[in-house]
């Protein structure tokens, strides 16, 4: 039934297993889970609604989660948050209105999540472990006695930070990966989760999550790498 309302924009449908429920509880300390993109085992309880011809936008829907994804297409500039947030909110409103119209009840968000995923490649002749230690602040390849050879052959990076006054959490995960062409790279995933109370505005919560993703990225990556590698000029 919902597909009939989006098939003009997202005609391709793919069944997926359901993602685990998400909620940030305090003062409980979250467990480190590492980078995981595979969903839980089970039947097709989640649906992808995709644009045709490898489009850049996609909806995901499951009983307790609504997701709006976008990515950069080849040879195109990466779409900015400010460009697609209104589209995301408009699509969510359409879904919410559809749910009420079809007697499924009012949609009441309890958490919003903004996720940034990027691939960081080395320059020609650059060692991936050396690059890993250069990208992130707070890392230093050394041991107490020098017995272990540095840098390590493989490494991962996991950090969790509290957002504001226990409004949510920022998760940062990075590790070594290999693309379809056999080239090594660093896979970086930054996720900000903000709990939503009944009085909170959805856009304000989304903007807070986005702010922490952007500021978190800048804070956790070396300034000289930002400027030299990614040409970041703003303070």
Describe the structure.
- This is TIGR04255 family protein.
- The longest helix is centred in the middle third of the chain and has 21 residues, at 81-101.
- This protein starts with a helix and ends in a 6-residue tail after the last helix.
- By secondary structure, it is α+β, with helices and mostly antiparallel strands.
- Residues 35-40 have low confidence and may be disordered.
- The protein is built from 5 helices and 8 strands, in the order αββββαβαβββαα.
- A 4-stranded antiparallel sheet has the order 1-2-3-4, covered by helices on one side.
- The protein is globular.
- The chain has 2 domains: 1-107, no CATH class; 109-235, no CATH class.
Report the β-strand fraction as a percent range: 25-35%
Arithmetic mean of pLDDT: 87
Task: Calculate Rg over CA atoms.
Answer: 20 Å
Low-confidence stretches: 35-40
| Helix content, binned percent | 25-40%
What is the number of domains?
A: 2
Assembly annotation: single chain
Number of helices: 5
How far apart the termini lie comes to 48 Å
* Structural class by secondary-structure content: alpha+beta
Q: Would you list the SSEs in sequence order as H and E? A: HEEEEHEHEEEHH
Shape: globular
